[in-house]
Amino acid sequence: MRVAFALLLVGCVQRQDPPPDPGPYYPPPGNPPPPTGSYGCQSDSECGSGYVCARTFECMSPSQVQAIHVVWTLQGAAASQTSCSNSPDLEIEFSGSYANPWGYAPVPCMEGKFTIDKMPKEYSYVNLGRESDITTGSGGRFDATTLTATIDLPY
Predict the structure, then answer these.
(1) Residue-range domains of the chain with CATH
(2) How far apart are CA 56 and CA 26, in angstroms?
């Protein structure tokens, strides 16, 4: 009797595989529309009273977001047409202990700086590298006071 009950119970359990991970979303700069029209917010007005639309398309309390800055040089030289000739377009990826990787591409190398005004505070680390080859770049943490990460790229 116990065996029959155990078999019956196992037969009723249905396995549900999680949906496949689509990976990080890399929109171009300027907070464009998200991948689908129903994914998150696009402006503060779409969030409830007292909330803002973070650049990750999530409605959050203003106390949960902050302006962050990434500045870079290339082998110690300021970003310019000459120093960026080997890497005109970059890819930037943000991460943190409890944050899904989030990034943007292409990022024009010659700018030398990338700022996000409403980034969730859970993002504490940034990687910067050539577009489609970020592994050869460099990374760093945001300074707790200035909320700036300074990176020297090896190109």
Answers:
(1) 64-155 (2.60.40.1120)
(2) 10
Q: Which amino acid is at 140?
A: G
pLDDT in tens, 48-79: 899 999 999 999 999 999 999 999 999 999 99
* Token reading at 129: 């590298």
If you search the block for the tokens 């460099």, which residue do you land on? Answer: 138
pLDDT in tens, 114-133: 999 999 999 999 999 999 89
User: Is there a contact between 86 and 128 (Cβ–Cβ < 8 Å)?
Assistant: no
Residue pair 90/77 in contact (Cβ under 8 Å)? The answer is no
Cα 35 to Cα 61: distance, rounded to the nearest angstrom: 23
